[in-house]
Design goal:
Blueprint (H helix, E strand, L loop, with lengths): L13 H34 L13 H34 L14 H6 L7 H6 L1
Helix pairs in contact: 1-2
Organism: Thermoflexibacter ruber
Protein name: RNA polymerase-binding transcription factor DksA
Keywords: Metal-binding, Zinc, Zinc-finger
Length: 128
């Protein structure tokens, strides 16, 4: 869609938005699968299912605690990414997807393909 005064495109077409929606849905499925796997791993560790057959811990306590913390951090980052992807899908539905919240201009397709959940153009990101 083009602005009547400048001739500059102000939003992506339905076909373009459909392409981004498919990309977001694929990344969302992949991320939810990863999050589910992480949560299962954390549950196994919490219940002691990762102990070896002799009932002894497979790692020293310090290393075990570090691994648990790393799993928790990875799960938290993955959950945040899932939320960002879901929010991007909402922006597609309400017609604001691909519009930089800082500049109001369209975010280039290349950037959206690389970071489909972004709300900022490179120019806005560098300026912040």
């Amino acid at each position: 869609m083009k602005s009547s005064t400048t001739g500059e495109k102000v939003r992506y077409s339905e076909a373009e938005l459909k392409e981004f929606e498919e990309l977001l849905l694929a990344k969302l499925k992949e991320s939810k699968d990863k999050l589910s796997h992480l949560k299962q791993s954390m549950n196994r560790r919490a219940t002691g299912e990762d102990d070896n057959v002799n009932g002894m811990k497979s790692l020293e306590d310090g290393a075990d605690a570090l691994e648990k913390e790393q799993l928790n951090q990875l799960a938290a980052r993955t959950q945040k990414y899932v939320t960002q992807l879901e929010n991007a899908l909402v922006r597609i539905k309400n017609g604001t997807y691909g519009i930089c919240v800082s500049t109001g201009k369209l975010i280039p397709k290349e950037r959206l393909r690389a970071v489909p959940h972004t709300q900022y153009s490179i120019e806005a990101k560098k300026g912040s």
